[in-house]
Specification:
Elements lengths: L1 H19 L4 E3 L12 E5 L10 E5 L10 H12 L4 E6 L14 H15 L1 H4 L6 E6 L1 H11 L21 E5 L12 H8 L5 H6 L13 E6 L8 H12 L4 E6 L17 H12 L5
Parallel strand pairs: 3-4, 3-5, 5-6, 6-7, 7-8
Antiparallel strand pairs: 1-2, 2-4
Helix pairs in contact: 3-5
């Protein structure tokens, strides 16, 4: 009898542990469209005993042709969850070299939809609809900056009620972001997979985000390294200057050394300081406690 009780207890503990580690993948578009059925957000709920009700939607990088779901997705979401913030990792659509895959504005629509979805379902998801931010790395940083500069208040008469709410984020965090789509500092791979091999000049200008900052673009934190060999630091500098010109609260941290794609840089004692700076910034804005 004792043996049976022990086995039952073991399975109960294992079941509870597995449930505690479960991160539901939530489709954000109405089902039935093969183009958008794969777009989803993966929800990481707070794990550290504190729940601030704030939320961040994370866009992993990958040049708009892949997504770094571990280093720039799951690990980042867990970092937020441990600090009381809900995190949602976005699986947005991707481009193809010949332009036959997704292309602008598909990716932007996916992030706009994710912000609307989390805001509309805020009560069920346990978040504050006025504390929803975006974060992105590299090309994902471009996407986070794109929704920070290309947003609307929602369509009041839309049949789909999710589309009735605003997609304007309340804050933005950009890590070594792609910003520029024309000129010597362009990340040409991201441009090709986002806009196609022969992009329309208007689309190039619309996605050159240093030219698109609005008076209500959200407060923004930016991190980059001077010797990033993949995405020139000028991308972050020009975006910061555009924010400053428009009067948007912004904080830019440039480290002298560090490769592209470091994520949280957990194994680099110098570079990992960027997350300490980020946490302080988030606390100053009341997003973390």
């Amino acid at each position: 009898m004792k043996y049976r009780i022990s086995i039952t207890l073991l399975f109960s503990v294992l079941s509870f542990t597995l449930l505690g580690q479960n991160h539901p993948a939530i489709p954000i578009y109405p089902k039935g469209n093969p183009v958008t059925d794969s777009v989803e957000i993966i929800h990481y709920t707070p794990t550290g005993g504190l729940d601030t009700k704030a939320a961040v939607i994370i866009c992993p990088g990958g040049g708009y042709v892949m997504r770094s779901m571990r280093k720039e997705g799951r690990e980042v979401a867990e970092w937020y969850a441990k600090r009381g913030t809900h995190a949602f990792v976005l699986k947005y659509r991707l481009g193809k070299f010949d332009g036959s895959g997704a292309r602008h504005p598909d990716m932007l629509h996916d992030l706009q939809r994710a912000v609307r979805y989390v805001r509309f379902h805020a009560t069920e998801l346990g978040v504050n609809p006025d504390m929803i931010g975006v974060m992105g790395f590299s090309a994902g940083g471009h996407l986070a900056a794109a929704v920070s500069t290309h947003f609307d208040a929602g369509e009041a008469n839309a049949t789909d009620q999710v589309e009735r709410v605003s997609c304007l984020p309340n804050f933005a965090v950009l890590a070594y972001p792609v910003i520029i789509m024309n000129g010597p500092h362009t990340h040409w791979g991201s441009r090709r997979f986002l806009l196609g091999p022969t992009p329309d000049p208007k689309a190039v200008e619309d996605m050159s985000l240093e030219h698109q900052v609005k008076p209500i673009t959200p407060p923004t934190f930016i991190f980059h390294t001077s010797d990033d060999k993949s995405v020139d630091v000028e991308n972050s500098v020009l975006y910061y200057l555009a924010l400053r010109k428009m009067g948007i609260p912004a904080e830019l941290h440039i480290f002298q050394h560090g490769p592209h794609g470091v994520g949280l840089a957990k194994e680099d004692p110098t570079l990992s300081e960027w997350t300490v700076l980020l946490e302080t910034w988030l606390k100053n804005w009341g997003i973390m406690k």
